[in-house]
Amino acid sequence: MPDPTDPAPVLARISSDAASLHQALRSLPAERGASASTLAARLTDAQDLAGTALRLFLTLSRQTTRPSPPDLLLLHRVAQIAKAAQDAAAELTAALARAVENQRRQAAATSRRVVLIGPTPQQFIESTTDLVDRIPALCDAASRDRPQSPCR
């Protein structure tokens, strides 16, 4: 039976999920932009990633009654992971909103010249990709720096 105080399996899953999300973001079409449904699916993935990291943080913080410096470092790393995932979800939300707004403007245009507002959805997606790209390294650092004994 796995040790419930060992964050390594959860960190490995977060890292794997972040790598999958990163790959999915990199494969989105750049020229025409991603569809709203595709962006919504990636947004859900980012939110799930953030939720997993936040649950890990909550679990670890509840297990730590008298935190030592290694415990605090682990909590800090997990908080950084959660923040990166939440920021990625926020960027994808902005990309989705911008894509829908631009589609609305194009549909409502009476002439061929449409003024689209920026930053573009693709710029938000690129920002998201950068944020998600950091998560596996943060997971590795958290795994490497975690206390040798279970959290107290």
Question: Layout of SSEs?
Answer:
Layout: H1 8-26, H2 36-63, H3 69-108, H4 121-145
Helix pairs in contact: 1-2, 1-4, 2-3, 3-4
Structure description:
The chain is mainly α. Helices cover 74% and strands 0% of the residues.
Short description:
The protein has 152 residues and is mainly alpha-helical. It is 74% helix and 0% strand. Helix 1 runs antiparallel to helix 2 (36-63) and helix 1 runs antiparallel to helix 4 (121-145).
**Quick check: average pLDDT?**
88
Secondary-structure element pattern, one letter each: HHHH
Outline: elongated
> How many β-strands, per DSSP?
0
Radius of gyration: 19 Å
In terms of DSSP E residues, the strand content is under 5%
Low-confidence stretches: none
Helix content: over 70%
The computed structural class is mainly alpha
Number of helices: 4
How far is the N terminus from the C terminus? 20 Å
What are its keywords?
4 helices; single chain; 152 residues; mainly alpha
